[in-house]
Amino acid sequence: METIFKQWFGEHKGLLYRVVRAYGNTAADQDDLFQEICLQLWLSIPRFEGKAKVSTWIYRVALNTALVWNRGEKNRRKHRDRFITFAPQQQRNDSQPSQEIIERLYEAVRKLPKVDTSVVLMHLDGLGYDEMAQILGISESNVGVKLNRAKKQLAQLLGGLIDDV
Amino acid sequence: MTFNELQKNYWQKDTAVSKLTIDSDMLIREVKRNKDAFESSVFWRDFREVAVGLIMAGVFLRGAFKPENNIWIAGSLVVTAISMLYVAAFFVIDRHLQRKKEARHTDPLLACVESSLMQVNHQIWLLKNVLWWYLLPPGVGIALVFIAVDVDLFKVLPAKLVLPGCLSGTLFVVLIFVGVYWLNQYVVRKGLMPRREELESLMKSIANGGDVRQS
Fold first, then answer.
1. What is the ipTM of this complex?
2. B110/A136 CB distance under 8 A
3. Residue A160 in 3-state DSSP?
4. Across the interface, do A146 and B107 touch by the CB < 8 Å criterion?
């Protein structure tokens, strides 16, 4: 189980990073959510039968956790030393102008309704409609409707950064 | 910039992701610790609730079989003990049934939100009806004990001595019961109802805009 977890984590840490940053408003929130997702991922390993792609599985666990995550219950976890930092300040030191755009994007994504956030995240990560439909449990046409709506809202929130929506 | 450019040139080339370094052994240790802490908190919560019921039942049963108690007092104590056992059994059975319905984070999102909502609804139902399954059974037993003891006392002591004791004892128990009831309704209002609304709106927002996919 540990080997599978390490392998999944190593290959898909970017996915987890993005989900956590998109759903957690503060560094403490992000840390809590990250730990919750890791716990749920660990618990999900025995149920993984290989029918879905690993990335689809991890996405499903991560988004489910993020969506039903109850901030009120998070305090059950004792705060220890953080072993990962999700705060955007660290990346700003890179002095790359692209980082600024990414930060703006995260900020806008966090302002979307929760479900739209998940659709946009999956789309930005390059998932197809069929995979998104599997993860969300809705039809592909519904995914399309949601994605179009979310993209329009995102464009508004980004204030002119995107011009083709 | 087009959406595709944003996606390909910025989002998917985010350097922060590649720079992430996490000690996976430490992470696994933390995950295991969280899992143990979660399981142990669930176990001790159940244990506490059942243990209190069992201890109270034991105390009342012990009292019932004291030779100095008459049949009415003994009977009322037995009724109270049974009601305590009933409450403990209710906890165990309810938890067992609900655990089977717990939300699975590996289900599609809609199904996961739906089961979370069902759990919250069940919690609301439990707390709203706390009077009927938690307070009333031992309440009836305790009332019977009070009546039996008071009748016994009235036989040997003057009413002006017994009455204040009866009234203050009854008032004390009633206040505790009202407090427990109020606390439960407060949790429903402040904690569970907003959570239900949040999950309901989440469900609506997943399902609207098209048909729900069967899985």
1. 0.74
2. yes
3. coil
4. no
